[in-house]
Design brief:
The protein contains eight helices and seven strands, in the order ααβαβαββαβαααββ. By secondary structure, the chain is an alpha/beta fold. Helix 1 runs parallel beside helix 4 and helix 5 packs across helix 8. Bound molecules: S-adenosylmethionine.
Length: 257
């Protein structure tokens, strides 16, 4: 399932192989596709996310950040901030919007986030965060692991921008590997959600986005490889907590010395 990324080197760990149904041109084609699809569907994202998670997404994100150790006064980098669903909860927990910086390559998603958030934001990729070394106490990334070009490079970057003792918290959906749970989830994400979004949203790409989500989830590297990549980047106590059998929370600590 894992494959070498010829654009970034032999140690690279791509989250999933190329999905030629959606884009051509290897890594460059994938990056352009991902940026375009998020830019064009940004106005629909929150509505569809609420529909998909039955309105629990906000509550769940906050609980996950708390579980990972986010506390008042911490300085946070929220990678892949999107429309700000994780960043908003982080602001509530740390106590000030000035302490949370959002990072995302999609100007469309960022514009949506800034409708209700006053946090500093940076346009950029998680793989090359335009941030100084060792400035954050906590780094979050919600539902974007599958959109990275290379987990090895990105996790090293996360390690670089965290202070010693800093924590990383990566949220991702990991469908059950087999069985009825997987069949039902596939039907829901790849079948029912796209139909509902076609009926209720503005942009045709929104339905397509959820099909793409499922296909990336289905072909994503297994959790053990994500944990290995975190350890290889220097995170100690890398671990995975699973909620409801499919919401994975990967955490780790940058050692204090
Ligand atoms: C599914 S949305 C998740 C948004 C938000 N974190 C949440 O929990 O709802 C994925 C986001 O990842 C961003 N993204 C895609 N590729 C990225 C990359 N290489 N580095 C950082 N963010 C990326 C997209 O622009 C999009 O805003």
């Amino acid at each position: 399932m894992a494959s070498t990324n010829r654009d970034t080197g032999p140690e690279a760990l791509r989250p999933h192989p190329d999905l030629e149904r959606y884009y051509a041109g290897g890594e460059q084609g994938r990056r352009a596709f991902v940026r375009d699809i998020f830019d064009s569907t940004a106005g629909d994202y929150d509505r569809v996310e609420r529909m998909m998670a039955f309105g629990t997404g906000t509550w769940y994100r906050r609980r996950a950040l708390e579980r990972a150790g986010l506390k008042t006064g911490m300085r946070v980098l929220d990678v892949a901030m999107g429309t700000g669903l994780v960043a908003r909860e982080a602001v509530a927990l740390v106590g000030s919007p000035d302490l949370v910086t959002g990072l995302d390559p999609s100007a469309g998603m960022m514009r949506q986030a800034l409708r209700s958030l006053t946090t500093p934001v940076v346009l950029g990729f998680g793989e090359q965060a335009p941030c100084r070394d060792a400035v954050f106490d906590f780094l979050s990334m919600g539902y974007a692991l599958r959109h990275l070009s290379d987990l090895t490079v990105t996790f090293r970057e996360f390690h670089r921008v965290l202070k010693p003792g800093g924590r990383v918290c990566i949220l991702e959906m990991t469908p059950p590997r087999a069985g009825l749970g997987r069949v039902l989830l596939r039907l829901y994400v790849r079948g029912i959600i796209p139909v509902l979004t076609r009926l209720t949203t503005r942009h045709a790409n929104t339905a397509f986005l959820w099909q793409y989500f499922w296909d990336t989830m289905e072909t994503c590297v297994p959790p053990a490889q994500v944990l290995d990549a975190l350890r290889a980047a220097g995170f100690t106590d890398a671990s995975r907590y699973v909620e409801l059998g499919m919401f994975s929370e990967y955490t780790g600590t940058k050692s204090a010395s």
